[in-house]
Amino acid sequence: MSAGGTLIGRVLEAAPAEPLKRWLLQQSQLDRLGALFLLLTALSVTAYGVIRPDYRNWDMVAYVATALENRYDDPQQLHAETWAIIEPEISEWQEHHLKYSNPYNLHQWENPADFQSQLSMYRVKVAFIAFVRLLEPLVGTLSAITVLSALSSLGIGLLCLWWLWRADALQSSVFLVPLLLVSDYSRMTAAAYPDVAASFVSLLAIYMLWRGRDWAASALLFTSVLFRPDNIVLVFALLITAFLFNWRKLTFIVTFLAALATDLMIFRALDHPGWWAHFYFSCVEMQNSMVGFDPDFSLAAMMKGYVRGFMGSLQSNNWSAVLAGLVAGWAALARHGRMTAPRANALAFALMIGALGKFASFPLPDDRFYFIFTTGLALVLTASWKPRFDRAATA
User: What are the residues facing 191 on neighbouring strands?
Assistant: First the structure.
């Protein structure tokens, strides 16, 4: 081919690329791509959670049993009915894992009375159990847990999309989506935990606070405590923030006192073993039976729980690294004058101390316990930052 032909070929190859490049680098197109990226992620995570739910999680067995407690008082019958629901829905290797993978699981499989004693730590998630029972006639007990997680997960994704759209920050999806995934969004959706529903309600409350709708946020915060009583840590963090940042305080005082009173009533009415016994069980040493379990307070045992949680957070989970990166990003954005949205700095502060307070009150290392804090902080920061790749490309 001649030099002229080669040149014409190059021109023809380059010609459609430049208009395409200009089209792609328009703000509207990049915003649409960002929205599509976030939407497809939420839909994919939700679909995967429905198609491939994580039935290796032993807590799922306890939540199924808790949903059935109002029908079966006898431990033997409750145990039998629980497994009669679970066994047809799980694979052989999942069943083996749930029954025989460790001494604790084996003991709970072989001892119905001890199994029933574990439920005192699960039944306090009253809203979660209530929704499972509400959905049960439609889809079955086990599928009700999966459906509730899936709907909550999709709600989280759509709320993130709505928030970024309202903040004119859709292009920040390129940063938010990876953070959601490393913060346990997908794995948490597939497992039978109340954390997804609690996170959706809490995230909606934070959005309402970002919009300045305090009473609506307070109602949602109170509801989140019914899904997870320990979400009172977030309520308390916001109460502290209200005083330090001169918000209207009455709303948060009322919410905190109502949540605290409700927690105490739930714990007493549903025979929760108490903070220290639960701390010892979860953070120090698991107990085959919770009947009469009332260990003496031990500073050494408490420190063992914190060390175990700290090392687990660093070695097997991401929340601490994600939180550190987000706090550094907060400092950088504030220094460059980007944290100008109403309440942005106050909400960032509340979510930061909330994550630290969550660990301080109960040092479990799993990312799902801190998802609301890391995701909420990420949304506050990206809504303030509003990155624009179309401007960067032009520059």
Answer: 54
